[in-house]
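Thread title: Can someone regenerate the structure for this chain?

I was given the following input by a collaborator and told the matching structure tokens would be attached. They weren't. Posting the sequence so someone can regenerate them.
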Amino acid sequence: MKTKLESLNKEIISCRKCPRLVEWREEVARVKRKAYKDDEYWGKPVPGFGDPKARVLVVGLAPGAHGSNRTGRQFTGDASGGFLFPALHRAGFANQARAESRSDGLLLKDMYITASGRCAPPDNKPSPEELNTCQPFLEREIQIIQPKVIICLGKIAFDRILKITAIRGLKFSHGAVYALLPSSFINHPSSLICSYHPSQQNTLTGKLTVEMFDEIWKKAKLLLNENH
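Best answer:
Regenerated them for you:
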């Protein structure tokens, strides 16, 4: 019998609701980048992945054109993942620091990684309408996983979680932690942690350092211990 997550992921992968995104992701997969000309690109919506019994849910922005849109797995095969997975490995959430393909042996422990938008958008910018169309997938993931801790990588993910939980007035700042009351999505108290997105724009400029990022995962572990 298929699990709820497996059924949801199958639905995500077959989605063609946003014409602009379908056209873009498929064109990128056809044209390819020179460095990956021999790769077979995924070119479809990218589902979440990780531990189905996870207590930590990580929410990113959307697949990178030549990262997840090529490999078919969140944060895999691009610079953002090159910054994220070593941090998760150091914190004990991942069994290895590298993430190159769906068959590289990477396993997540107590963590599930997903995104606000599932298709690679032009200029890395999904429109508000596209994010709204995609939102039910994230809502259902949250309901299935029932996380204790949600980590938002970037303000778009943060705003999306606030929209889903109908919370107003919270401000996004790196390292901020908010308590969430039980809701129709999560039936127990949980916590929300904000982090800058590990994009090259943030990591190469020093806006997000290795130390700053490591602190986020330490906070997550502390919250899990408190909630144990």
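The first helix runs from residue 4 to 13.
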